[in-house]
Amino acid sequence: MNLSGKFISFEGIDGCGKSTQAKILSTELTACGNKVLLTREPGGSEGAEEIRNLLLTGNPDRWSAETEILLFTAARRDHLERTILPALQSGTTVICDRFADSTRVYQGVTRGDLRDLVDQLDDAMIPRQPDITFLIDLDPNIGLSRALERSNTEARFEEFGLEMQIKLREGFLNLANEFPKRFMVVDGNRSEAEVSQTISKLLHETG
Ligand code: ADP
Ligand code: TYD
Hints:
Layout: E1 7-11, H1 18-31, E2 36-40, H2 46-56, H3 65-89, E3 93-97, H4 100-110, H5 115-125, E4 132-137, H6 140-149, H7 161-178, E5 183-187, H8 192-205
Parallel strand pairs: 1-3, 1-4, 2-3, 4-5
The structure holds adenosine-5'-diphosphate and thymidine-5'-diphosphate.
């Protein structure tokens, strides 16, 4: 499997296991001799990490829905320019914990129907989409309880409750149908080891 210069993203609701699986895959691919960059959104570059703080801490009501989309897109643009594109160009495999699909789903679902605006900004500003997107699909009840167990200052998007997690899950599954070529849906309601074995297998199968 030649993963040189490939861009892999992980998506799914809060607590579905993205960070865990992204880390496991990064370790596995590195052990196989690949150059790997593990990164995350919002964040992943100095400027984007600063924007992450603006988005995830402080009073969330100080941003309108539109401003929030602009901030996520600005962070992504910086992350691409400074971190992701240079790594891909040097043949590194980039594994990213969340990318543009999170904006399509979160800002589309939680802030009214702003998908068109998200898409317009994405078309104008985000010149690269992932080659492969693993969607870890999890029962929203489990995702919510896992996410709430982690007490941190960045809980604002996790405070939306079960109804919202159900909508977000649906939003991600709809995206997987919309982009079937790059999306791979993985059942996250299993042990970490089982989920990671499935991800490795799917990656091998894509060649
Ligand atoms: P995300 O990045 O999607 O929010 P994490 O990978 O941080 O999710 O996982 C959230 C929590 O659930 C962590 O405490 C992690 O150890 C745990 N976890 C992750 N995957 C599994 C799994 N398959 N089964 C049980 N617990 C898990
Ligand atoms: P993250 O740190 O990945 O949270 P988690 O580990 O719980 O999945 O992301 C922080 C929050 O930001 C998360 O609740 C989802 C939200 N988010 C958006 O609303 N839009 C976006 O474009 C991105 C990348 C994240």
